[in-house]
């Protein structure tokens, strides 16, 4: 994942409030890291620990230093600094950078931006912006619902009944997050957050009925904008020749963006109440989180009973 310096300029949601001061030729420069750097000693010519791929933030200390040293010395140091492939410079607090900094940045094609924010405030804002924008992401076809606080991702081939299950869960008081296309981002260190695309948010497609707006029909308590995904339930057509999990001792996983999630395969056939099964799966997930694993406890009790079974009771 990456974004351009132009994306920083165009931000509206995070309030970066950036203006271009020079170096427009470098607006296509790409950022790949959410970390920023204050150049510090690099302004004196010591560039040993310079990270040119990061946003370089110049605050009151840096601009004051450049304004007080002889212009010839400052120009030499800044020219050396600009000989590196710097992503961009950002001057905070609405300060006016020295002319030799503007000229060097312009000649090197390095974007020079300015903001009215204090350095500490701006660093907090841009770090959050970069972290959100550079997170690994993907799209998955399915339905995401919040069941008892558990983020349940419903998968299955088209027409198997994912949306109908989600609608029934909403009617029971649970909450819809996304239907059809789910945008998933990885939150560090190992959490996946799913949400709907802006154009289809709060909407569901019910075959034979069409597009419905869940928020309008059932109120704001029936929807969520985003939710951490805790488990995956895959709806599958019943196949008598296939063996399905009967005990629940084994815990298969599904990997999405490098994160392992509990993965249950639920066979679909007439007469099965899928909504109740999904609710029970969510409750069981919560129970496991508290340290209680029903299937394993049952298995252990059964083995203990077989191990201490009295001898001599066999039927001859």
From TrEMBL:
GO terms for molecular function: ATP binding; magnesium ion binding; phosphorelay sensor kinase activity; protein serine/threonine kinase activity; protein serine/threonine/tyrosine kinase activity. Residues 267-272 are annotated as: Important for the catalytic mechanism of dephosphorylation. The keyword Metal-binding applies. The keyword Transferase applies. Mg(2+) binds at residues 163, 205. Keywords: ATP-binding, Kinase, Magnesium, Metal-binding, Multifunctional enzyme, Nucleotide-binding, Serine/threonine-protein kinase, Transferase. Its EC number is 2.7.11.-, 2.7.4.-. The active site is at 141, 162, 180 (proton acceptor), 246. Its cofactor is Mg(2+). It is an enzyme of class 2 (transferase). Residues 204-213 are annotated as: Important for the catalytic mechanism of both phosphorylation and dephosphorylation. InterPro entries: HPr(Ser)_kin/Pase (IPR003755), Hpr_kin/Pase_C (IPR011104), Hpr_kin/Pase_Hpr_N (IPR011126), P-loop_NTPase (IPR027417), Ser_kin/Pase_Hpr-like_N_sf (IPR028979). Catalyzes the ATP- as well as the pyrophosphate-dependent phosphorylation of a specific serine residue in HPr, a phosphocarrier protein of the phosphoenolpyruvate-dependent sugar phosphotransferase system (PTS). HprK/P also catalyzes the pyrophosphate-producing, inorganic phosphate-dependent dephosphorylation (phosphorolysis) of seryl-phosphorylated HPr (P-Ser-HPr). Homohexamer. The Walker A ATP-binding motif also binds Pi and PPi. This is HPr kinase/phosphorylase. It comes from Citrifermentans bemidjiense (strain ATCC BAA-1014 / DSM 16622 / JCM 12645 / Bem).
